[in-house]
Amino acid sequence: MAAVSSAIGARPICPWRVLRAELHVLRAPGAQRAVVVTRGAAIGAWVVRWLVPKRGQRGKDGPVQSNWSKSPGVESSKSKLSRVLRLAIDASAAEAALDPENADLESFAQQMRRVLELKRPQRHDQIHDHELAPLIQKKWWTQLGKLVKAHEEYQKPLPTNAWISLRLDGCCWGTLMARLKASGILDYGFRSEIAETMIASCRAVMCEFGAVVGYTHSDEMSILVPPLTELPSHVSWWVSIAASVATATCNRMLAALAAQKGLTLEDRILAHFDCRLGVFQSPLEAESLLLWRASDCNVNSASDAIKFSGAPMEVRSFNTIQKLIYLQRRGGLPLQRHQAYGSLLRGGDGRVVLMNSGAHAQPMHLLNLCRNASLLEGPLDADTAWPGTTPQCRA
User: Where is the tRNAHis guanylyltransferase catalytic domain (predicted)?
Assistant: First the structure.
């Protein structure tokens, strides 16, 4: 606080520079919350003092009116500024407090969720047609992914009191898409037909196991099944059924798509999926899988759009924001919803509902949607729904 203390009363010094410097210090590993709160309060008070002159203080055009600093507008601005500063300090403190070395998935997921709740979505003056998520460093998402994947190494009989995840990936997906386009079944670029195929495949797996949540983007899908599911406890049974259901549904959709164009699928055009199973002891742990995959979609969606746009190779090395700016300047935004944010499906009340359609001004980005409520709970009031969530498989 030396810089702040020496600057109090010296209005020519810009407070935002000091604030940025202080926030940088607060992000350092091992920062204590008590120190953060104390320094944050001092910084906020000083910034307000810098912005709002005292009564009787002289301005460029003479004495400032004695009642200026007490006007409702100024008080409102002071209150808003104080609130923004407080949120910024709290968000920085929460991110600085992340401790991946000594954290299990439950505690680390709780800390990550706290950071998401405190941080506001990013804004950029050159990106107008894309929903940005709160900025969290890549290393934290990588660590969350490591903790989640450690729960996918379960080989014992499945417990009945745990959440079960099924994470499926399309095999040789790039080759499959190239063959579909070469045969004339698909046009070049991102295709909504494939998005619909993936959503249908995700719904089929959800209904097969009575899942409450499914999330799909690109060539992958993540399914969450709640505890007390009356299904066999063998891991091999779950992964084989899930992979076969996704594969069958996807190929059926591709055959129908070919038939609409008067074509027949070649024998070599065949989709197939692999599957891994995870076991989680709480809804928070299970939800962390969705947040991790949503962060991956956040990066990959921009990269895919750049690839489809025919941009020069050097553009592909840009970071995500730079890629979005490139797309915005060339009319490449907005992306289609499924390409940009994936599709979050919720099961219940005898139907499967698309939760991130953007209806009623709700966020489409999962990392913004989860700031309001858990992705596993809440009313099913979205506009897009399909019938069926009852498990179809029985031992």
Answer: 147-277
Question: In degrees, to the nearest 5, what angle opens at C-alpha 41 toward C-alphas 37 and 42?
Answer: 120
Report the domain count for the chain. Answer: 2
Burial 76-107 (b: 16+ CB within 10 A, else e): eebeeeeeebeebbbbbbbbbbbeeeebebee
With 0.85 as the threshold, say if the pTM is over it.
no
Together in a domain, 158 and 88? no
User: If DSSP codes are grouped into helix, strand and coil, which group holds residue 62?
Assistant: strand
In a domain, 81, yes or no: yes
Cα 249 to Cα 214: distance, rounded to the nearest angstrom = 15
Residue (of 16, 69, 66) closest to 44 by Cα position: 16
Which amino acid is residue 7, in one-letter code?
A
| Whole-angstrom distance, CA of residue 176 vs CA of residue 155 | 31
DSSP assignments along 63-103, one per residue: EPPTTGGGSHHHHHHHHHHHHHHHHHHHHHHHHHT--TTS-
pLDDT of res. 190: 87
Contacts of residue 71, Cβ cutoff 8 Å, sequence gap at least 6? none
The reply to whether 157 and 92 lie within a common domain is: no
First-residue to last-residue Cα distance in the chain: 66
Measured distance CA(206)–CA(203) in Å, rounded: 5
**175 versus 388: which is more confidently predicted?**
175
Range of the domain at 244: 144-387
Are residue 76 and residue 180 in the same domain, yes or no?
no
In a domain, 182, yes or no: yes
